């Protein structure tokens, strides 16, 4: 046990071919002692590590593979406010006052991305602008209601594009308008993650790669054990996302790994790209199994979608991705996909973030539910605050109720597949 099997790791990602240099870090060997031991070298773990090291704590990260190997280095790169579920769901779960705070902090997450890119001079192609697009009349109503809710209850301004304007900006007949947000945006997620890794190293964080944690010994001084070493600490942070397994069963039971996939087209040149997406923005529809896409810095379309609820790679992935891409942009019928890859997201039952503490000294953040590019940075910061003695913000997240998937590990996949089938059917029919 330790990490889930991931055949998709072998898939070829455009990000890997355009990655910034990263110095391989040694594995953990023997016994070490730090103030804070972190499982997972993705954005959550790195963000917590950086904040803690900057406040003078001795921090080490154990990463089963290499920094950015998980979702953080593979994602659609869309850095958006909010969480994996609607804000109205969060309001229903925790009440209006807490919901307002949680929303505001999610916006802090997007700002934190921008601040860190600037502060650490991370070369990760950040671009402003994001649009949510409706496919069905029902979704137009939902997005307009969402826009009103954001403005009236959260003071957050977005822009509604009628269909003509949407088609000028996003040249697809599939959509019925767009909800545009100028403050969200997109980036090269692997290079951002590696940039944060460099910042963490510079702040004194020790990173051990090829160091899968096989056991958490919960004690007054908790210990993370790997095959070759032990890391003792005052505090442990679990940031293994969808990839961790068998370390804390009560956390495993509350998330479900779901596969999502991305294809990178061959480069189509700046003019042709602009004829599809005029202003270099990121786009996502609001279906349950959504499509999300954006231009790359070298004018490829990076097109994501196709959820799967097993840890096996789906058959005919390339053909499926081409068919989804050309359903949105039939103009790309002659265009090849140069790269196809995927990864897992950690879906919680209500799709709300599941961050908190178990016992006095073990912290965790999971349940990003496919919405973690911005929220992970915030999770790391808020856990770091709690470890430093200011837990008031983490306590608000900890008030969001979370339940195990019914049926436990054995049944969570079939049940989620059944739920997915229902939502997909609803998106298809109505
Ligand atoms: C294909 C894809 C597209 C996505 N697109 C978007 C998007 O456009 N916008 C958005 O907001 N979100 C998106 N997401 C979600 C987002 O990428 C994640 O929420 C976020 O990156 C999670 O970061 P993390 O650090 O928590 O986890 P990860 O980046 O997954 O890092 C966890 C790390 O823990 C390590 N690990 C696991 N188990 C162990 C162990 N036992 N010992 C040591 N190390 C271990 C793993 O190797 C991994 O490197 C996408 C995800 C995927 C997969």
Descriptive keywords:
13 helices; nine-stranded mixed β-sheet; FAD/NAD(P)-binding domain; 21 strands; binds flavin-adenine dinucleotide; alpha/beta; six-stranded mixed β-sheet
How would you summarize the topology of this molecule?
Elements (H helix, E strand, L loop, with lengths): L1 E2 L10 H4 L12 E4 L2 E4 L3 H12 L4 E4 L15 E2 L7 H8 L1 H24 L7 E7 L3 H18 L4 E3 L1 H7 L8 E9 L2 H14 L3 E3 L4 E5 L5 E4 L2 E4 L2 E4 L5 E2 L3 H4 L2 E11 L4 H7 L5 E4 L6 E4 L5 E8 L8 H12 L8 E12 L5 E5 L3 E5 L8 H13 L4 H7 L9 H22 L1
Parallel strand pairs: 2-12, 3-4, 3-13, 4-9, 6-16, 13-21
Antiparallel strand pairs: 1-14, 5-8, 6-8, 7-8, 10-11, 11-12, 15-18, 15-19, 16-17, 17-18, 20-21
Helix pairs in contact: 2-7, 2-11, 3-4, 4-11
The protein binds flavin-adenine dinucleotide (FAD).
The site of flavin-adenine dinucleotide (FAD) has 45 residues, from β1, α2, β15 and β19.
